[in-house]
Amino acid sequence: MSLDALFDPRSVAVVGASADPAKWGYWLASGALAGRARRTVHLVNRRGGGLDGVPFLPGIGALPTAPEHVVVAVPPRQVRPVVVEGLAAGARCFTVITSGGADPAEERELAALVTAHGGRLLGPNCMGVVDTTTELRLSWGDFPAGSVGLVSQSGNLALEIGRLLARAGQGFSRFVSLGNQRDIDAADALDALIAHEATRVVAAYVEDFRDGRRLARTLAAAHAAGKPVLLLTLGRSEASGRAAASHTGALVSARSVVAAVCRDTGAALVESAGELVDTAVLLAARHRRDRTHPGPRPEDHGHAPTPPLRVAVVGDSGGQGALAADAFVARGLDVPLLTEATRAAVSAHLPSRAGSGNPVDLAGAGEADLRNYAHVTRALLDGGDTDATVLTGYFGDYATANPEQADQECEVARALGAAARESGRTLVVHTMARDTPALTVLRGCGVPVYERIEQAATALAHTARLDRTVPQPPPALPSRPSGRGAPLAADGGYETVRALLAGHGLDFPAAAFVTTADEAAEAALLRVGYPLALKAMGLAHKTEAGGVALGVADEAGLRAAFARMRTATGAGRFVVEAMAAHPHAVELIAGVRYDPAFGPVAMVGLGGVTAELLADTALALAPLTPSRARALLLSLRHAPLLTGWRGAPPVDLDAAADALCALSRAAVAHPELAEVEVNPLLVHPGGAVALDAHGVPA
Question: In sequence order, what are the residues at sequence separation of 6 or more whose Cβ sits closer than 8 angstroms to the Cβ of residue 343?
């Protein structure tokens, strides 16, 4: 259902309006009145009174015309009667500020009542909604106008972001406080921002992802629409007994899942409000242009590496230029040596002692003539050697010490803006100045200005990743689990999980499950052969518990190992399994874990007993496709071990990818297992074979 009545209603009624600036009702009422040139505004307070010449009416029923949007700021026990009265009057949208009093079931019933009448509900327990493009201000606090749309589950965080944006010369196009999300949720609000022409950058602070896959589809749609999304969330991870039951549980945190979703959908996961604002300012200021080096899809061209963003650095201090270069390289950007042609163009404006390789040191040329800042910067932008140029140092502060330079410094600032605009490339300024006329000119020309070089570096790094992402909408899940073999998987043990995974196409060595030493010896003789592996069943971490014996060469060794293992573990059931020894093999860990918001999440990493120590993993929503699985394998830090390290032959990546797909298919079909893990998955030049498997019942 449309959210037009939320952002641009024809009429608004504030129920709980107040003339007391210490109360929420005052700020809601005064904000609503600020837009009365565009819409009809009604103020309701049963005790009477008025604000700014507008009288308070006793109830919605007393209004001369029906309100389209009702803002509810009354005590909890009065919320439902107000909503009922509003629905009877024909209201289409309710923003419920009120918090406390109602339990979740009552809030859900309230939302169901509204939606059953074709309406929408924002909240309860929210801070309101703002649309600066429609003169709608139904919230407490100041919301500067700009081109950043924000969806937030924290009101105070929104206020902080607003103040930081204002200091950077930016502001909000829209702001939506989600509250308890009983009807309008993060995905709804983000969809509305994507469709909003005045919103150029979408920002979100989300704690509760609800239907994570739906939100992921929204993030991918935003990227496809050219609306970059910056996501801020909590860093919490689940610390439960289930997490300790497997390596997968320890390696897949809630935040790591969100990071994987952002990577695949083309959103940027940021670490703080400041980082969000720094990146939003750069994204909002960029002139519309074709993306530079968008990069291939991960599955194209053998997963060719995406070229990093190339940055030219120019400054009036050699030290600052060098530190800036370090900051960019540390964040994955490239500071390349300039071509001879560009160096010649730059050197024409520099003293002979100046360095022009990148970083470029003005070496006093700026002090000699402020126009050299613009001349050198234009040469770098027009040269085409780099995608972005960063001017670092003192520019913007000359007029502070010498007011007579104010006009010239502003003139140079305009020239810098023109150089960026005409080149179609990104220009960023880092300066020790603050709030000077020249900086105002720069911001007005669409040039982002930062006080610290790390702000500029982080913003450029996020922007580069966004530009180079080819979004992948989340894979669809079956409408209902197949249920095939569900009772078989219920205990999560190796025997049952092995059968489940083998049924979906995963290879295992020949094996027999036994309870006695005689059965083990018979299985070795007739079915498995020597050398073999003996494993105790019922243990999550067999090696640490003494439940694994490898390379058993004969019957005597088997019986001795069996006796030791039974004493050490107390196990009642064992598996005799053929040894899988392959030259140039690499041990991986592969697993799928059900996330409460995003559903099944596939994980692959370097495996064996060092899986948690190395923590070299890659995640994606399941089920996987072969190309996606292959891309995950090649994204590991230790991927060179798979592609042929120091002359070794490469492993069979297709077989490894097929094994990951089989595991993910099985996990999706069996939601009765909260986690499914294979560790190790032995990949080698001839294929892939699973050597152990484990499940955790939901």
Answer: 356, 357
Is the separation of the CB atoms in 680 and 589 below 8 Å? Answer: yes
Determine the Cα–Cα distance for residues 376 and 358; give it in Å rounded to an integer.
12
Burial class (CB in 10 A: 0-12, 13-18, 19+), 301: exposed
Dist CA 207 CA 255 (whole Å): 11
Q: How far, in Å, CA of 486 to CA of 100, rounded?
A: 42
Contact status, residue 126 vs residue 95, Cβ threshold 8 Å? yes
Pick from 373, 338, 376, 378: which is nearest to 358 by CA? 338
* Percent of the chain that is helix, strand, coil (3-state, to 5): 40, 20, 40
Closest among 634, 640, 695, 649 to 670, alpha carbons compared: 695
Q: How far apart are CA 405 and CA 410, in angstroms?
A: 9
Neighbouring CB atoms inside 10 A of 420's CB total 26
Residue 11, beta-bridge partner list = 40
Instruction: Choose among 159, 198, 151, 202: nearest CA to 175.
Output: 151
Task: Tell me which H or E stretch contains 677.
Answer: strand 673-684
- Of 99, 104, 52, 105, the C-alpha closest to 76 is 99
Q: CA 222 to CA 219: how far, in whole Å? A: 5
Cβ contact 207:185 at 8 Å: no
Pairing of strands 388-393, 311-315: parallel
> CATH 3.30.1490.20 occupies which residues in the chain?
510-578
Give CA separation, 461 vs 167, 168, 393, in Å. 22, 19, 20
Task: Note the CATH number of domain 586-697.
Answer: 3.30.470.20
- Domain 1-131: CATH architecture, name and number where available: 3-Layer(aba) Sandwich (3.40)
Beta strands 617-621 and 360-361: pairing type? unpaired
Mean of the per-residue pLDDT values of the chain: 90
Contact 592, 676 (CB under 8 A): yes
Residues 6+ positions from 243 with CB-CB distance below 8 Å: 249, 250
| pLDDT per residue as tens digits for the range 435-465 | 999 999 999 999 999 999 999 999 999 999 9
Name which of 301, 302, 270, 258 is nearest 619 in CA terms: 258
Q: Which residue has the higher pLDDT, 479 or 73?
A: 73
Q: Burial code of 9-25, b = ≥16 C-beta within 10 A, e = fewer?
A: bebbbbbbbbbeeeebb
CATH hierarchy code of domain 300-456: 3.40.50.261
Element (H, E) at 108: helix 104-116
Among residues of the chain, what percentage have pLDDT more than 70?
91
Count CB neighbours of 479 within 10 A. Answer: 5
Question: How far apart, in whole angstroms, are the C-alpha atoms of residue 563 and residue 377?
Answer: 77
Q: Residue 482 — pLDDT band, cuts 50, 70, 90?
A: very low
User: Between 3.40.50.261, 3.40.630.30, 3.40.50.720, 3.20.20.140, what CATH number should domain 142-294+470-474 receive?
Assistant: 3.40.50.261
Instruction: Report the predicted TM-score, pTM, of the whole model to 2 decimal places.
Output: 0.89
- Altogether, the residues listed in the chain come to a count of 698
**pLDDT per position as a tens digit, 652-696:** 999 999 999 999 999 999 998 999 999 899 999 999 999 999 898
69-72 vs 93-96, strand pairing mode: parallel
Domain 510-578, classified CATH 3.30.1490.20, yes or no: yes
Q: Where in the chain is the domain with CATH 3.30.470.20?
A: 586-697
Residue 490: the pLDDT is: 57
Q: Max Cα separation, the chain?
A: 99
C-alpha dihedral sign at 28, 30, 35, 39: positive
| Alpha helices in 127-211, H assignment, sequence order | 155-167, 186-195
Three-state DSSP state, 102? coil
